[in-house]
């Protein structure tokens, strides 16, 4: 498996992968692929990595800027992340996240936030300690990992593409 930045010729495969990976999920509203398209169009897709195996895109992860209490301050959001259904639970997603976080650190980012299952992302170093909030969501699902400086406190807002696509 090779993890690399997305290329223009990956976009359709990423779109199909994202739709297929999120379609069976109870929490999905179908906006994940449109979010990725909107992030690309707005220039806010800071890091976009694919996992490739035998020439096939089997996973994808996106990172984009977030604000915390109205300030960007070097923080990024993780997501959407998708892995082909037949390759889930094989470490593809974990490898994509680890490489994305490494690249964010190398860029001088202060940290990364996400909304997700604490049981999954806690194993990757994220914490949902209540210091970040997002609307009415359970604070344990609003997670972060700090690379430098103190952990942030406040309301996290993802790139406008998330709101524009129905989130």
Automatic annotation (TrEMBL):
This is N-acetyltransferase. Gene3D superfamilies: 3.40.630.30. PROSITE patterns: GNAT. Coiled coil: none annotated. Keywords: Transferase. Residues 1-152 form the N-acetyltransferase domain. InterPro entries: Acyl_CoA_acyltransferase, GNAT_dom, MshD_Acetyltransferase. SUPFAM superfamilies: Acyl-CoA N-acyltransferases (Nat). PANTHER family: L-AMINO ACID N-ACETYLTRANSFERASE, UPF0039 PROTEIN SLL0451.
């Amino acid at each position: 498996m090779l993890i690399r930045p997305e290329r223009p010729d990956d976009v359709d495969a990423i779109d199909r992968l994202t739709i297929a990976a999120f379609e069976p999920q109870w929490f999905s509203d179908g906006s994940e692929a449109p979010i990725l398209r909107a992030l690309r169009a707005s220039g806010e897709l800071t890091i976009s990595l694919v996992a490739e195996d035998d020439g096939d895109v089997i996973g994808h992860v996106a990172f984009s800027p977030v604000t915390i209490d109205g300030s960007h301050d070097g923080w990024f959001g993780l997501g959407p992340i998708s892995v082909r259904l037949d390759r889930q639970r094989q470490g593809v997603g974990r490898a994509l996240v680890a490489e994305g976080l490494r690249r964010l650190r190398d860029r001088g980012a202060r940290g990364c936030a996400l909304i997700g299952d604490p049981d999954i992302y806690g194993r990757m170093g994220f914490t949902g300690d209540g210091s970040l909030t997002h609307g009415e969501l359970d604070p344990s699902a609003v997670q972060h990992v700090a690379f430098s400086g103190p952990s942030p406190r406040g309301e996290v807002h993802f790139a406008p593409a998330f709101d524009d696509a129905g989130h």
